[in-house]
Each structure stands twice: as C-alpha cells, then as structure tokens.
Design goal:
The protein is 56% helix and 13% strand. The protein has helices spanning 9-35, 54-102, 118-167, 173-202, 212-229, 247-263, 324-334, and strands spanning 208-211, 233-238, 242-245, 271-279, 282-289, 338-343, 349-356.
Length: 359
C-alpha cells in the first residue's frame, strides 16, 4: 500500500518528550513568577529598603530562565531520542520478523527476552501466529502433494489401459472398459472429496436446523446393504439432537463415519452402533464399531488427509482415498464443533462428534 512519507514514530515520541519537558519547565517558571516575583515591591528601595526590587530580579531571573528552558529543550530532544529508541527496539524486531515472514520465511521466531509487557505480549502472539501459519502452510503443501499423487494414480492407470487397447486391438475390450470405469470412478470420487473438503474448510454454506438423529437413520438405511453384505450389525439409537448447519455436509459427515465403521470392522460378526443425544446446548453423535485393535499413535493421524494407516488400508471395491475422516474433521470444524477419536480396548474405534445444539 502506497503511503505519503511522514515522521517516524521515534521522532514523534522525541518531539513529544521534549515538548512535555518544555511545557513542564515553563509551568515551573510561571509558578515562580506568580508566587515569588509578583510579591516583590516594584519600587526603588525594594523590600524594607534592603532587598532588590522587582525590576532587578526580573533582569537577573529572565536570562537564567531562558537558559534553563533552552537546556530543558535540548535535554528533552536528546534524552527523548535515546529513550524512544530503546522503547521502540522491540517493535523494530517485530517489524523485521514480519518482513521476513512476508518474504516467505515462516521459520523465524522473535523469542523476545525480558519480563512481560505489551511488546513481549505482542511478540509472543506474533510467534504463535507464525508457528500456526507455518504448520498450516506445511499441511497445505503436503495435502497438495498427496492430492496430486492420488489423482495421478487413476489417470496413469487410465492412460496405460488406453495404450494397451491401442497397441493390442484383439484384447478383451470388456475387461479394459471395466478397469477404465473403475479408475475413472476413483478419480471422480477423489475429486468430489477434495471439493467437499475445500467447501468445508471455507465454511461457506447456508445454515438451517438439522436433526442428527434423522441423518443417522438416513445414513444407516443407505449403508445397510453394505453392512449386511459384510455380516455387520448396524444399530441406530438415541433421540433427537438438533444443530444449525448444512444438511448436505452433515449428512456426508455421518455417511463417512458410518461407512468407515462398516468397512474397517471385523471380517464377519462385527457391530456398528450410531447414537445421538442432546446434552443441554450440545448435540452429540457417537459412532462405535468393533474391529482390530488400533495402535494409540495411529489414532491422532486418522483425520489427516490421505493418512490411512497400514492396518486400516483396504484393497477391495470400497477402498477409500484417505479423505473420509479428514472430511469429517473439516465439516465438524466448519460447524464450530469438536471431534474425538478413541481406540477401544477390545478393538475398533469410538468417534464422538459434539456440535452446538439448538432447542
């Protein structure tokens, strides 16, 4: 932003210090005049015929007062310049750090030493902002790299299949078409998931009253054939739990949770329980499933994009793109809620979503 040149903060503070000191000196001299000189008789004999008169005192006092005022002004300018420089040194450090951040160096930290004051508080807040910004930028870079890699895989498969079909006209076209359809479907699913994740991160959607219990029933009804195919018992319990938000995004959130619970379960005989309830001004959705035990260090990474974990990766027709729980986390965050993942001692996962409730 272009601005006209002006006085620096240090110079303005210096002039303020000097001006304040000059005014204080002038007031002091005025007090001396009012309470001393005005009571000195203005006659040739002075006070009781032995003290100087007002004229002599003024002639003597005025040059000394002028010299004192000049000294105070110079002292105020020099001292104010030094004091302002010392006071503004932390601000200069913060400015340098901001310039470095503007040039892309987010790893720099101020770490200003000394006791707590306004400048140290600003410095700590700036360091915290840089840390979060660096983490966010690194996360976005990893996300872009992973997304490019994930999108490249089905596209590369499609290109290879097309090259095979072109080089070998006698090859079974039905098989090629089926494999092309699978690769294309995976690319479309990944693209839609990325768009949905981006939409949730922006938080641009129309809010309306939504009942999580109805969304849970709809998701369970939709995914019941998949659960029956895998021999999974799917139960929906609880009562109404209303919140304000996007019905489409919240339904996708519930669908992802229930589908993950069904897919990442025991080979047969597993269970999935979906429970909704309202606690005061909070609406709670719980999705619990059986399955293999999860390492504790794996659980916090499940909401990261493209983080599947070796024990959760699938190779069948329901293989995901690693964005299921990342989308859930994005939707929950966009709705000002919290997402908690807890591994069950007997195996499986308990996912708890808490959203602001409405009457």
């Amino acid at each position: 932003m272009h601005r006209r040149p002006g006085l620096s903060a240090r110079l303005r503070l210096t002039l303020s210090y000097a001006g304040f000191l000059a005014v204080a000196g002038a007031l002091l001299l005025a007090v001396v005049w009012v309470f001393l000189l005005r009571y000195v008789p203005d006659n040739p004999k002075g006070l009781l015929g032995i003290s100087p008169n007002r004229y002599l005192l003024v002639r003597t006092f005025a040059p000394a007062a002028a010299l004192a005022m000049a000294f105070l002004l110079v002292f105020g300018l020099v001292g104010g310049w030094i004091l302002a420089g010392r006071m503004l040194t932390p601000l200069a450090q913060i400015t340098d750090a901001a310039r470095m951040a503007g040039r892309g160096s987010l790893s720099h930290r101020i770490r200003m030493k000394g006791r707590q004051d306004e400048f140290r508080e600003l410095s700590d807040a700036f360091d915290s902002m840089l840390e979060q910004l660096e983490s966010h930028v690194a996360e976005q870079r990893r996300f872009a790299a992973n997304a490019s890699h994930e999108l490249r895989t089905p596209l590369a498969i499609s290109r290879t299949l097309l090259d095979v079909a072109r080089q070998d006209p006698t090859r079974d076209r039905g098989e090629l078409i089926e494999r092309l359809h699978a690769a294309n479907t995976r690319a479309i699913d990944l693209t839609e998931a990325l768009l949905l994740l981006s939409r949730g991160d922006r938080g641009h959607f129309t809010r309306e009253s939504v009942d999580l219990s109805l969304l849970a029933e709809e998701a369970a009804e939709t995914l019941l054939p998949l659960a029956e195919q895998r021999g999974i018992t799917l139960d929906v319990t609880g009562g109404a739990a209303r919140t304000n938000g996007s019905a489409e995004l919240l339904l996708r959130m519930v669908m992802n949770l229930v589908q993950n619970a069904v897919v990442h379960n025991l080979p047969s005989g597993g269970t999935v329980t979906v429970d909704t309830e309202a606690y005061g001004d909070t609406s709670v959705l719980r999705v619990e499933n059986t399955g293999t035990p999860l390492p504790p260090e794996l659980v916090p990474t499940l909401t990261e994009p493209f983080q599947r974990g070796t024990e959760r990766a699938r190779t069948d027709e329901h293989a995901g793109v690693g964005l299921g729980l990342a989308i859930v986390h994005s939707v929950v965050r966009a709705h000002d809620g919290t997402l908690d993942l807890t591994s069950r001692p007997a195996g499986g996962l308990l996912v708890t979503v808490r959203l602001p409730g409405t009457p």
